[in-house]
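Form 12-C: Joint structure prediction
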Amino acid sequence: MSSTLGISVSEENGVSVLRLNGSLDANTQNNLEEKADEVIQAGASNMVLDLDEVTYMGSAGLRALHIIAGKFGGADQSERFAHLKLLNPSAEVRRVLKTLGFDNYIDVFDNLDDAINSF
Amino acid sequence: MLQSAPDSVVSKVADIVETTSIKAGETLFEKGESGTAMYIIIEGRVRVHDSDLTLCCLESGNVFGEMAALAEDEVRSASITAEEDTTLLRLERESLFDLLSREPAVARAIIYTLCQREKNIIDDVTRRSHKVRSLENELEIGRKIQAGFLPDSLPRVAEWEVAPYFRAAREVAGDFYDSFLIPSDGRIALVVGDVCGKGVGAALFMTLFRSLIRATLLSGDLVSWAAGSEQRSGDSPEREVLDSRALLHSAASLTNNYIARNHSKASMFASIFLALLDPDTGSLIYINCGHEAPAIFNDEDITRRLEPTGPVVGMFPGATYGVEQTALCPGDSLIVFTDGVTEAVNSQSEQFSEQRLLNLLDRKDESAAHLVARVIAELSSFTSGVDQFDDITLMVVRNIHKGL
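Section 2 - Result
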């Protein structure tokens, strides 16, 4: 069972937007972390993950969010998640975020402008 | 290859080869392609690989491609990509066979090269087999030690049944369950957890999560054992309820804060359901830390879902956890499960799903152990022919008091 995750990167108003396409799971978690790392190393200070075309996200995906948020530095949780926002998760991905309690820590938006203006 | 061959032979070889070159990064051929030529490296360096896995690198004087060239219906057994600009001599099968039939010295040189290669391969396989065996031994030790972090036996309490099920996807697991009596409190602890990920990393953290929770819930007893006293406190029942709630809360928040503060770099977390059951009254106080909602059910229906009361453990320092209270009345059962059950897939990649699990629950007069066996049988038949992907854990607790 081999899953794939496509990632395309763009920059909008100084914010790096990573558009994900496919399954964010244990097989693809590293791809996202590596791509995010690349973008952050290149100087990104704020990031939006567009989850519109993410078909599945499990606990490995949430772990990736925590790891990526940590790459921006910051001493406490609110700082940790200040630089990473989510866009357009499916109802099922929202359910996973809520079940695991991530919804209180990471901001989720329905449109890109709101996400970009929130930084 | 032709080191031992006389100059006359070398010059004959030179007559039938053609020089070719590949640029750094260029792939000469891919594994699985058919090919009829062998190559000798004049200058440069190539990588022999299978997708991302590098098997070896070859340099000036080395030969490759001889297997496909010599065996007529062979396909390339590995891919070749230039590490730097490389110049090669290319020798086609027809010319090679022609040369071999005319020049025994060349044939001997090639047989010698192949034998050397075979010897290296055998040495390598032997070395790797020893290494694999030693790693397997290590994993087996790990598996045995980890099994010791699951309870040997469950508390036996009159009029209650507790039936667990646990099956790891690999040798070691990230799931765990626990159940034990807390002597100072008189309640039974029920714990089911799922550490994110699988394998050794998850297993190491499983031992930590499980131990911190157990140690906190038993802290009163551990301290009094240390002091040589096992007396239960004589407080009023209301006072006891408060203590149990505080105890449960401290188990969740201490474990959470400990792991989030001391192991934040690992970004490891666990979803954990933990509860204290009063076997006399059926009262159940619980915290659900980001875990799939357990269900309470009777002969007829699912009567309650125990939704999350806080986030997963180990991720967010200072997180708050709500302590909820419910009850298991006579005839009621509680089922706690991990997503290894609901997300198990069949050969069509369909998930077993929570709905399928819940549909199996309301049977009359079935023991907890029977129910667990029936659910696992259904799950096994559903996933038949597919490798188990995630750890699978279930716990069913049933109140078998006769109704009032």
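Section 3 - Comments
The two ends of chain B are 91 Å apart (CA to CA). The interface with chain A takes residues 194, 196-198, 264-265, 267-269, 271, 289-293, 308, 310-312, 315-319, 339, 343, 345, 349, 389 of chain B (CB under 8 Å).
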